[in-house]
Amino acid sequence: MTKKTAGARGDAVRSRRGRALPANACPACGTTMREKKGPLRLPVNGEEITVPDAGHLACPACKEVVLRLDESRRLRERAIALYREKYHLLSADEIRSLRRRFGLTQGALARLLRLGGNTMSRWESGRNVQTAAMDVLLRLIRDLPGSIEYLRGRAA
Ligand SMILES: [Zn+2]
Questions:
Q1: What is the CATH number of the domain that holds 53?
Q2: Do 81 and 97 share a structural domain?
Q3: Which of 75, 109, 116, 133 has the most other CB atoms within 10 Å of its CB?
């Protein structure tokens, strides 16, 4: 490797640092990325879930895919909703409505179930999914009269 090549490489690095990339430039190759809607996969509980119509930016040159913050949040919420459908778990809305039926705040139901303070909020906003075991417990609370009273009698 000659001294000249090393110098050229150094210049390239300096020019990359000095020049701001346009907002929709591909982080890998600099080509302007395009708005796309298409299938993207995301792992939920270790399983790859395909969201068929996920909004994102795609690079026409190198196929790099970039998600903006809101797209990334929507992709996760969609993947979790599809996961819940696939395994017949209660949806975010179903969990919210069963909690409200008993007049409980998210924190109050979390305490009765010995869960972390933010767990109900994560389930109800679709940012996280309940385990199959917790799903059974939620269904018991919903469908078995007296369950909430039973849990209240054993509250920590
Ligand atoms: Zn690219």
A1: 3.10.20.860
A2: no
A3: 109
